[in-house]
Prior knowledge:
alpha+beta, 4-stranded antiparallel beta sheet, 4 helices
Amino acid sequence: MKYIKLIIIAVIIIAVDQMTKRIIINNFSLFESVSVIDGFFNLIYLQNPGGAFSFFAEKSVLLRNIIFKILPMIVIFLLFVFYKTVPSSYKFLNFGLSLIISGAIGNLIDRFVFGFVIDFLDFYIKNIHWPAFNVADSAISIGIVMVLISSFTKKSSFA
């Protein structure tokens, strides 16, 4: 049952991530922005060849391929190995790991299909913008928070 939940979560997250990215690609020009909530939230079409906050975006394609294609595959594998060791009763931790794995796969698909990640969610206050992100990034971030929270609870202790 634990693995069925992982598969269901992965299918949903990856499908929503890829569908929303396709909607942006099909309806926006690169760098086009549409205000959704004035002064707070835009939809924008960006192509991010780097990592979070465009980290390594200016580095060589070879280095980016190693860092953003090969390394994520290794991390996804290691996360899955860790997921296998977590008891089914640790539902919160398992859900968090499922979100991280799903989000990582969603962004990895972009890397292989486009050579970059599609970002389109732009939150800001006045002229201060949080770096644009996508559904996969959201799943990864929420999953990391869940894993961190579960690490402080007695039930998720591995001792």
